[in-house]
Design brief:
Radius of gyration: 21 Å
Shape: elongated
Strand order of the largest sheet: 1-3-2
Mean pLDDT: 90
Largest sheet: 3 strands, antiparallel
Helix content: 55-70%
Low-confidence stretches: 1-7
Distance between the termini: 37 Å
Number of strands: 3
Order of helices and strands: HHHHEHHEEH
Structural class: mainly alpha
């Protein structure tokens, strides 16, 4: 078993320096990668995904989303705040009612491609 470990281990002796230089030149900065990880963390909650998917279909108010998902308005508002802070949803006021929708086409694309990927 010890021999197998030795064979699978990378010693850096045979690193492909030119390839590493090319990839390093294309890598985004740490702050950008952190922001990307945070974006995907937002997508990591099934309640937020359910809200996004509902908004993928139609603009809705908190009451409608709460009824659709069988949750309290408070719980939905809390999740919408996170989604709004991540710039994934936007709000529009009509009288006393606030309607939520997906922020832009990028969000629709992320959801659609995610669905395509898991349904393959």
């Amino acid at each position: 078993m010890e021999e197998r470990y030795q064979m699978d281990c990378c010693d850096y002796i045979h690193a492909h320096e030119e390839l590493i230089r090319q990839v390093r030149a294309q890598m985004p900065g740490e702050d950008t990668l952190y922001d990307l990880a945070e974006l995907f963390r937002i997508f990591g909650d099934s309640t937020r995904i359910r809200i996004l998917y509902a908004l993928f279909e139609a603009e809705m108010c908190v009451c409608d989303i709460a009824q659709l998902l069988g949750m309290t308005q408070s719980a939905i508002s809390h999740q919408l705040r996170s989604l709004k802070n991540a710039r994934l949803v936007k709000a529009r006021r009509e009288g006393k009612t606030v309607f939520y929708s997906l922020a832009d086409e990028h969000v629709k694309t992320i959801i659609a491609q995610g669905m395509d990927h898991i349904l393959e």
